[in-house]
Amino acid sequence: MAPRTVLVEADGGARGNPGPAGYGAVVRDSATGAVLAERSEAIGTATNNVAEYRGLIAGLTAAAELGADEVQVKMDSKLVVEQMSGRWQIKHPGLRPLAAEAARLVGRFTAVRFEWIPRDRNTHADALANAAMDAAAAAGVATADVASPRLVEPPRNLSGPQPAGGGAARVAAHAESPGADLTNAPVSWEPRPSFTATRLILVRHGETEYTEQGRYSGRGDIALSPKGQDQVRATATRVATLAPDAAAVISSPLTRCTATAAAIAGALGDVPVRRDDDLIECDFGAWEGRTFADVREHWAGELDAWLASPRVAPPDGESFAEVATRCARVIERVCTAYPGQTVILVSHVSPIKLMLRDALAATDAFLHRLYLDAAGISVFDRWPDGGLAVRTVNDTAHL
Fold this sequence. Notes:
Layout: E1 5-14, E2 19-29, E3 35-46, H1 48-65, E4 70-75, H2 78-84, H3 96-106, E5 111-116, H4 123-139, E6 198-204, H5 209-213, H6 226-242, E7 248-251, H7 255-267, E8 273-275, H8 292-298, H9 300-308, H10 320-337, E9 342-347, H11 349-359, H12 365-369, E10 377-382, E11 388-395
Parallel strand pairs: 1-4, 4-5, 6-9, 7-8, 7-9
Antiparallel strand pairs: 1-2, 2-3, 6-10, 10-11
Protein name: Bifunctional RNase H/acid phosphatase
GO molecular function, one term: RNA-DNA hybrid ribonuclease activity
């Protein structure tokens, strides 16, 4: 039986900085302290920090292979612990791809906690790293250059809040990201009676000044711009045509959504509007209100790590995995409260992308490849047995 929680001890070093380098990693059962796996390797000529990151990656990889759910990482590298915890920026370009690779591995677990420990409490991993360097030196192969993992640049304007600029786009499988559990949803080619399904019409709010300026717009309560107000009027007319008998309009609590929802409700004949806090945009923390280019310049490593895994949050912010969990709650509540009816959900880029990802049973790559326009409309049906049919994605014919 796979251990639910494991301890990873990792270390790395170089004889010279840079110099002949190696790493060591130990995976232990958290309950008993028993050693479950050891990893060590000489990596050629590298810096201490590169070797330490390689040790972390090796330890996380071994923990994943063992099927662990939760990991506690202990290292005597203050730099790695603080950077992976999101408290320090990753300024050195040589460490950014390694941090992104580590973040991708972090996304495979339910929880990962990082703790700094003194060197004298990390002797097992340290001994493995030194043994790897000794063996390489004896074999005369310690001068090979270390190769950093190659990371793929994501498409522009398609990731998360649709920022401009690149970054690491290692994406994990859908099964690694919490959201609606659709693995057992029934499948069939046979037509289903639409009147038994709950129809969800997802509407992104109209444009704001932040939309036009290319800024991260999360929990900041930014009003619609004049263009956004025009978009909302057109969207309200379109939704009233699509769903004249809609039972309710449910909105994020932020002004740009409540204004959009009010216009839709008015076009439907004053259908009630209800606010749901779980529909709010992702919390972008320290990046809120900053341009995409500014975040790329000042938080390049953190941005790469965030793009690499939906479980990584911006500094002081919220991860997409957390957003997906609350979006799943919204869908369950709506389908329970309005069976066989049509409901309009007015929200933001991140929640709508995540709801569509789960409805399509897509991988996390979907988040980087889907573009959602301001005031765009998406539609899917959900039947009482869990069956799903996505009918429309990002309809903008009304704009």
